[in-house]
Amino acid sequence: MLRYTLRRLLYGFLILLGVNLATFVLFFQVNTPDDMARLNIGGKRVTPELITKWKVERGYDRPMYWNDAAAGSERLTRTIFWERSVSLFALEFGRADSESAGDIGAEVRERMAVSLKLALPVFLLQLIASTAFALGLVFFRGTRIDFWGVVLCVVMLSISALFYIVVGQYLFARVLKLVPVSGYAGGLSAVKFLVLPVLLSLASRLGAEARLYRAMLLEEIGKDYVRTARAKGLSELRVLARHVLRNAMIPILTSAGGYLPYVFLGSLVFESFFGIPGLGSYVIDAIGGQDFAIVRTMVFLGSLLYILSYILVDLAYTWVDPRVRLN
Amino acid sequence: MRAWRGLGAFLAALPVLLLAAVFALSGCDNSPHPAGEAATNTFYSAFSERSPRHLDPVASYWNQDTPYTYGIYEPPYGYHYLKRPFELVPKVAEAVVEPVYLDKAGQRLPADAPGEQVAESVYDIRIKPGVLFQPHPAFAKDAQGRYAYHTDHALTAQQVGARRSPLDFEQQGTRELVAEDFVYGLKRHATTRVTTPVSGIFAEFIVGLRDYIGLIKREDAKLRAGLDPASLDRPFLDFRRWPLAGVSAPEKHLLRIRILGKYPQWKYWMAMPFVAPMPWEADAFYAQPGMARNGLSIDRWPVGTGPYMLVEYQQDRRHVLQRNPNFRVDTYPCEGMPGDREAGLLDDCGRRLPFIDRYVMAIEKEGTSVKAKFRQGFIDTPVIESSSTGLDYLVEAQDSEDIQREYQTKGFQLTKTADLSIWLLGFNMLDPVIGYGATAEEQERHRKLRQAISIALDWEEWNRIFPKRSGTTGMSPLPPGVFGSRQGTPEGLNPVTHRLVNGEVQRRSLAEAKQLMVEAGYPDGRDARSGQPLVLNYDYYAALTPGVKAECEWVIKQFAKLGIQLELRATDNNQFQDKVRKGKHQIFWSGWLADYPDAENFLFLLYGPNGKTRADGENTANYGVPAFDERFQRLKYLDDGPAKQALIDEMVAIVQRDAPWSFTYVPWGSGAVQPWVRNARIPILIKDHLKYYRLDSAQRVARQAEWNRPTLWPVGVGALLLALLGGAGWRAWRQRELATARPPRVAEPLIRERS
Question: Of A144, A181, A189, which to mutate for an interface test with B (greatest number of B Cβ within 10 Å)?
C-alpha cells in the first residue's frame, strides 16, 4: 500500500509537471508579456517605457526558458518559466500580475474558506440526496414510480445549471422575496446568501447523479448475495442499505471523488452569479484580467487537488471493499 | 411497526422541516445588508468588474478608480458641482489662479502675449491653511514626537506581521497639509514603483520633469543594486532628496509650478488626482519590508485630505469609504443653473459637506442582479462612477408599460443628457485602399470613398435599433459641453454627411453616396478598372458577444448598401493593439472619454505626431495633415474666446472633409438613482460627487419594507405538496415492503356444486 501510494504520488508529480508546462506554453503562446503589460496598465496613454517598466518589475523581461546572459545554473533559474512556474512546486504562489493585487497565497486561503462554505454542504447533501433518491428508485424498480422517477432525473439533468440559477433567483429572490438575489457576508449571516445557491446547485446535479447511482445499484440488485440476504428474511430496506449500497460504493466513490476538488476550488458559475467571493470567481476574474500569475496558480492547485482526490479515492476502495488490493 | 410509522411520519415531514429551517435561518429577508443598516446614513452601490485598478494618484487613470481617488484625494482645483459649462473652483487652493507668463529671458509678459513668445508659465497657488490629512499610522508619533511606525521606529516584516490594513495599527495620527506635499506628489510621477500613465505628458510641460525621471531611474538603480528587481520589498525612494526644478514650495502654503511654454489646459490637470498632495510619511511607511506582501501600499490604502477615507478594501469584493473626521470645512454650493432650485438641487445651500457617513461598494458581476437589487431598493445607485447606468432602465421603461408604471410608482430618478465622450468608426489613413493615397488623384478618390461610407453609415438608424447604446448623431470630433463644439446646432452639422432641409438636419441620400462611390472609382462597390468587388476589413477590438455581433452586423449592412463587402476581423484587444501598432488595421471602432472639458483633449486624437503606428500615440487613425497639425499647435496656446472658436471651426471643417472618422454618435450620459437620494447628478466629468449626495434614510427604510414584503404562501403550498409526496412515497414503500411474494388467492371450495 505504501509503495502504491508513493508510486501514485510520483506519477502525480509528473502529471503536475506536464500540466504546468502545458499551461505555461499555451498561455505565452496566446499572450506575450507585452500584451499582459498593456492590459494591466490600461487603455489610455500606454507608452513603451511603461510597458518595459511593468515587465522588469515582475520579471517578465527575462528569457522564457533559457537565459544566455546568466551563468551556471542561473541560465535555467533566471527565466520566466523557472521563476513563475517551477516555484509553484514549493507552494510559492508569489504576487498577482495586476499592480495593486497582493499575495496570491493569502487570497487563495481566504477565498478557499468561502468556497468551502458553499461547496461542502452541496457535496454532502448531494451525496445523501442522490443516494437516497437512487435507493428509492431501485426499491420501486419496474414500477411507475421508478419510470417517472427516471423521467424526472432525465428532465433535471437536461436543464442547464444556468437555468436553475436564473429561475431560482427570479422565483425566490425577486418574486417571493425570501432570500437576497446575490451577495455574501461572513459568519452566520452567510447562511441567508448560501441557502439558494446550495439548493439550486443540489437540484442541478441531482438528476444526473441519482440516475448514475440507480444504474450502479441495479447492477448489484440481481446478484446472488442479495437473494441470500432476502432468503435470510432481511427487510428490503436493510438489503438495500446494508448490502447493495455497500457493494455499489466503489463507482459511487469514484463519481463523488471527481467532485472533491471543487469543494475547495469552488464553482465558477454559482459563485459568479451569486456574487460569492470564492476561488471560482477568483479564477473568472483572473481570466478576464489575463492575470497569468493567478491563472497558473489555480490550474496548478486544480491539478494538485484532482491528483490527491483520486489517490484518496483509490485508497478508500480498500476501506469500502476489503477484497481490493492496491499494488 | 410503530417505529416504522414514526420514521414514515418523520420522512414525510422532513421536507417541511427542512424548508422551514432554511427560511427561518435566512429570516425570510431578501435584504443583502445587515439588519438595521437601511436606517443608517450609509450609501450602497456596486462595481461590476473588479476593484479599482489603482488608488495611487500618479497611477490611477481608470473610471472605476474615481469614486475613491476623488473622494480621498484633493487636488488644488475641482469643478463647480452645478454650473455648466464646467467651471473650475478651488478645492484646497485658495483660488483658481492665472499663470504668469515669462519670455526666454525670464521677463514677465502680458497675459495676452502670443503663445509662441511664452517660454514659461508660472502658477503660484496658495494652499488653504489648516487642512488636515485623514487619520493614518504614517503620521502617528510617540511621546517624544518621533514617528511611531517608520523612520524613527522602522518596522521589520515580522513587526508588520499579519496586518492588512492601516487601521490594524494601534496608533493613528495626522498633520497639516503643506505645499511641500504637492511638490512631493508631483515628483512621484517619476517613480519606478508604479506605472505612471501621464508622466510622459507631464514631462512635456513641467520644467525639468523629463530629466528628473532619468535621475530617479538612476538613483533607484543605485538603491536597488543587488536586490531582486521583482521583489515586493523595495527601498524607500525619498523624493525629498532630489529637487525638481519645475515644482517648488517657496512658502509653507505656496505651491509654484513652472510649465514650459503656454499650456492653458494645465489648469484642468490641476483638478485631477494626478496633482494631489502626497505626504512623504505615507511613502516611507508603505516602503517598509512586509508591507507590500500584505497589500499595504498607497495603491490600495491611499492617504489624503478629502471628505472620505478608505476603511475596508477586499480585493474584487467590497470597499467601504467612511467620512474623514479631519475633513476641512466645505459647503454645498448656493448657485446653479436655471431649474436647479426647482429641482431641489439648491436646498442644501451652505450646508457642510459631506452629507453621507459611509459608502459601501460591493461587487455585482451580473447585470440582472444589480438591476434586481436596484428595483428592490437595496442599491441606491447601480454604479456610482458610471455616467451611463440609467439608459438601460429608461429603455426598459419605454419598452414595457408595466415597467414604466413600476418605475414611476417607485419614483426612480432616471435622467439623461449628452455625455462628454465620443464613439467613432475610424479609417486607417496609412492603409493603401482607404487611407490617404499616393497621388493627388488617388487622395481625392480615397477621400470620396470615405465620404461615401460616412453617408451610408446611418447612425440615426443605429440610435433607433440599439437604444441602450445610443445618443445623438455625431457631427464632429467634439461632443457638446466642450468649448468650441457646435454639436446639436444647425451650424454644427457635418456638410459631408448631412444637409439642412426646411430647418431640419437630414442625412444625405444613398444616391449621393453612390455617386461619390462612382467618383471614387468603385461604382456599385466594384473596382472600375478590374471589376473586382471592394472588400474592406473591420478590425474589431473585442470578442463577439451576441450584443456586439448584432452591432457589427449592422455596420456590415451599412457598407453593403454601397456594394462594399466588409469582412469582420474580431480579435481580443491585445491583438487589435498589435495590428494598430503595425498599421495593419483598416476600419476600426474606438472611443474617447474626456480628461477635461477642452477641445484640445479631443482634437489631439487627430494630431499627426500622435499617430499610433508612427509614434505609439492616441491617434489610431494615423490622421495627420499639415493644415490640421499647424492649427492644432496654435490651438494649444489659445484661451477660450472667439479666436479659439474660429480656429476650432476650421479644424473641424478639415476633418469633416477628409473624413478619417465617421462620427457615429455622442452617447447619452444617464443616471439611475433611488428617490431617497438627494442632489444626485449624472457624474459627467465631475467625479467628486460623493460628498454632495444626501440620503433620506427614513424614506429608504419605509420604501424597502413596502417593496420587499415576502410572499410565504407558495412556500407553504410547496412544503405541503412535498409532504404529501413524501407520505405517499412512504405508504407505497410500506405496501411494497409488506407485500407477500404472491398475491393472496380466494380459497376454492373443496366440493363444487353441480349445476
Answer: A181
Distance, CA of B515 to CA of B451 (rounded, Å): 11
CB atoms within 10 A of CB A219: 13
A106 touches chain B (CB under 8 A): yes
φ, ψ for residue A234, nearest 5 deg: -70, 150
pTM of the predicted protein model = 0.86
Contact criterion met (CB < 8 Å) for B26 and A236:
no
User: Cα–Cα distance between B62 and B385 in angstroms, integer?
Assistant: 10
User: Per the CB < 8 Å rule, is B366 touching A140?
Assistant: no
Q: Element (H or E) spanning A211, and its range?
A: helix A190-221
Closest-CA residue of chain B to A184: B32
The alpha-carbon gap from B515 to the nearest alpha carbon of chain A, in Å, equals 39
Which pLDDT tens digit goes with each residue over B350-397? 999 999 999 999 988 888 899 999 999 999 999 888 888 899 999 999
**Binary contact (B710, A176; C-beta < 8 A):** yes
- CB spacing of A100 vs B578 below 8 angstroms: no
Specify the residue for cell string 488653504: B128
Packing angle, helices A104-139 and A249-257, rounded to 10: 150
Whether A59 and chain B come into contact, CB under 8 Å, resolves to: yes
Q: Give the pLDDT mean for A16-24.
A: 88
The pLDDT score that the predictor gives to residue B431 is: 95
Helix axes B713-738, B2-26, angle to 10 degrees: 160
The answer, for B231 touching chain A at a CB cutoff of 8 Å, is: no
CB contact, 8 Å: B19 with chain A?
no
Q: Which residues of A touch B294 (CB under 8 A)?
A: 102-103, 106
pLDDT in tens, B284-315: 999 999 998 888 999 999 999 999 999 999 88
What distance in Å separates residue B230's CA from the closest CA in chain A? 5
ipTM confidence score: 0.82
3-state helix, strand, coil in chain A (%, to 5): 75, 0, 25
Helix (H) or strand (E) holding A260: helix A260-265
- Judge whether residue B668 has pLDDT over 70: yes
- Give the confidence band of B455 by pLDDT, cuts at 50, 70, 90: very high
**E strands present in B525-647:** 535-540, 565-570, 587-593
- pLDDT value of residue A28: 82
**What is the band of B401 on the pLDDT scale with cuts at 50, 70, 90?**
very high
Arithmetic mean of pLDDT over chain B: 91
- Selected residue with higher pLDDT from B656 and A10: B656
Place of cell 441602450: B468
Asked if residue B85 has a cis previous peptide bond (ω within 30° of 0), the answer is yes
